[in-house]
Amino acid sequence: MCKLAVFASGNGSNFQSIIDAIEGGQLQATCEVLICDQPSAKVLERAEKANIPAFVFKIKDFENKSAFERAILEKLRDYDVHFIALAGYMRLIGPTLLEAYEHKIVNIHPSLLPAFPGLDAIGQAFRAGVKVTGVTIHYVDSGMDTGPIIAQQAVEISDDETEESLRKKIHTVEHVLYPQTLAHVFEKNKQEASNK
Predict the structure, then answer these.
(1) In this predicted model, what pLDDT tens digit does every residue of 7-47 receive, in sequence order?
(2) Number of domains the chain contains
(3) Which of 46, 157, 175, 193 has the fewest CB atoms within 10 Å distance of its CB?
(4) Strand stretches in 11-142, DSSP E
């Protein structure tokens, strides 16, 4: 059983979809801890409701990125975490975590990467007037949304689309694709580990 940590900064709807998939038996994992950098984020309410412990921190309490990532790493080791899923975590992952969890950090991004990386990808796509955008799940490297792509699903933008309706469409796809992809990644990891 894969021991998972989820990193989130906001509402946490993807966190919720992961929890629901675990509880429904579609994802063979346990969510050991939520890591959150926003003490007022709604995702914390979701974690509390699901009885999942949360490690909440404020960036300004640490002298630099390396210091807060070391604190996170300590917490991940306390919970014996095998894998990290980023679910709306609004910070770039630094070398401290990348080295400790090489090829074990996955992110979800609301566009068809490499198009529209970074913040507000849905708004970027909408303003660009493209006819198709989508969702990407990828491994995390040191760049912004540049790691190897694991899965993608296209979402068409209709002529009468609003940014809000597009956001809803994207979220609907994310909430199915992310748990499915994580299940595939965990299974692949398990097979690779047993082949060693």
Answers:
(1) 999 999 999 999 999 999 999 999 999 999 999 999 999 99
(2) 1
(3) 193
(4) 29-36, 54-56, 83-86, 105-109, 132-139
